[in-house]
Amino acid sequence: MTKLKTNDMVLCGIFASIIAILAQISIPLPFTTVPMTMLIFAVGLTGVILGCKKGFISICIYILLGAIGIPVFAGMRGGFSVLAGPTGGFLLGCPFMVLIIGYISERYFSYFHILISMILGLTVVYFIGTIMFSIITKSTIYQSLLACVIPFVFVDLLKLILATSVGVSVSKRINLKLINN
After folding, report:
1. In the predicted structure, residue 179 carries a pLDDT above the cut 70
2. pLDDT at residue 108, rounded to an integer
3. Are 40 and 125 in contact (CB under 8 A)?
């Protein structure tokens, strides 16, 4: 098991903060309890720039901070009740999204591969979030998809395209990983 260097720990903390800040950029929608935030963009960016291990640590720090009550979740909310609530599954799916994006970006550092990994990661977030929303609200999967996924797909795909572009550009500039285009 490799130890994290001080620089790595600082990067994980910085990216946990970036995730928390971008999660506050939130637009409440009148037809659903799920707000439209920049969380997906932040998670994608974290996975591309930090990779699998450090990205996973960053998103876990963010989720743990929120779980203990620090208001880092959308709408300046915090506490375990948010994670156990109807939208908690979308937050709990984010570590899986970072793992997928980080794993692929460490091995195949190209726009195409990273974008595909982001779409796959987002699909996992949607799956976990929809299942949990459905169970907690006692709605059907179809109703949950209509409330929590369908309204967000187009905008989330745009966020992923932007995160891919920014993430690849930043990674190339700060040389956090070997680039093999």
Report:
1. no
2. 87
3. yes
The full 3-state SS of 59-115, as one line of letters, equals HHHHHHHHHCCCCCECCCECCHHHHCCCCHHHHHCHHHHHHHHHHHHHHCCCHHHHH
Q: Tell me, what's the pLDDT at 178?
A: 39
Tokens describing residue 143 = 């109703």
Q: Does the residue 176 lie in any domain?
A: no
| Residue labelled with tokens 């506050």 | 24
Residue with tokens 């970036």: 18
Measured between its terminal Cα atoms, the distance across the chain in Å is: 29
Q: Is residue 175 part of a domain?
A: no
Is 22 a residue whose pLDDT tops 60? yes
What per-residue confidence (pLDDT) applies to 2?
66
158 lies in a domain? Answer: yes
pTM above 0.85, yes or no: yes
3-state secondary structure of 181: coil
- Asked if residue 178 belongs to a domain, the reply is no
Structural domain containing residue 13: 6-169
pLDDT higher than threshold 70 for residue 86: yes
Domain count, the chain: 1
Which CATH number belongs to the domain containing residue 29 in this structure?
1.10.1760.20
